Every structure is written in structure tokens, then in C-alpha cells.
User: What shape does this take?
Amino acid sequence: DKDNSIDKPCDNGVTSLWVAAQNGDGAVVELLLGAGADPALGPGGSTPAEAAATFGHDALAARLQQQGGGS
Assistant: This one.
């Protein structure tokens, strides 16, 4: 069901993975990636890796990039 997809964005366009990356929550990021979350999805074309990097979570940004999360 698409409405219950792990990649379903909130009203503002962010996904659970994007929020976890922004907050630097590596455990949640790993859980979501393991469940099949798409590391390339985010609001306005930004990626969770970019969110992590913007907020200083460089190791997490690199991990997301390894998973196909863009720049």
C-alpha cells in the first residue's frame, strides 16, 4: 500500500529517513535503510545525505552516499 510506504513524505515533503539524517540519528538511519527506505528521496530534490552534511553529520552523510543517496 503506497500510503503506508516507508518512503511516504510528510506534508512538508520530508521522509522519515531525511529527518533521521538531519538529526544525526545513525541507528534510525540504519533501521530505515534496512527496511528499504530510498536514500535518494527528500524535499525539493535534496537528499538525506545532504541533510546530514548540512547539520554536520559527515560520517552519516558518507554512509548515505554509499547507499546511493547522492551528493
Notes: The chain has a mean pLDDT of 90. The radius of gyration is 11 Å. Residues 1 and 8 are 10 Å apart (CA to CA). The chain has four helices and no strands.
